[in-house]
Design a protein that fits this description.
It contains five helices and no strands. Helix 1 packs parallel to helix 5 and helix 2 runs parallel beside helix 4. The chain has one domain. It is mainly α.
Amino acid sequence: MAFAMKTLGESSTQQEIKQRLQTIRPESQRRWGRMSANQMICHLTDSFRRTLGEKKTTDLPPKKLLKLAALWLPIPWPHGFKTRPEMDQEIGGTRPVEFEGDRQELLKYLDQFICESPVPAFSPHPVFGQMSRKELMRWAYLHMDHHLRQFGA
């Protein structure tokens, strides 16, 4: 059986992610980590803000092998990677306000990110460096999938 390399460049995957996002509730319990469901929603929004150049982060030297493994090995992302301070809702990330409003904000940024006309300008990733649109669509899917699985969605 072949492993499907899903990306947010595919409309069916976009719909799947949006449907999974709708199953998250303020009281949804995490399976790992320390974020609440609402913090996770804001964390994902911040990741799109960063990619779209609206939120700054400190960058590390690009890690090409890690990028290759993270994007294209057919295994789920492991738990326990420390998030960048600017993306941590308890440090420098956007604080949750109201769950449904925060979810709508995430959906707005998701739509902006996947827009094909005009294609947005993307900032380099703080760990992976400059990424192609294909790589970004794969990264965004994996990042959202990771955190949706964190809350059972």
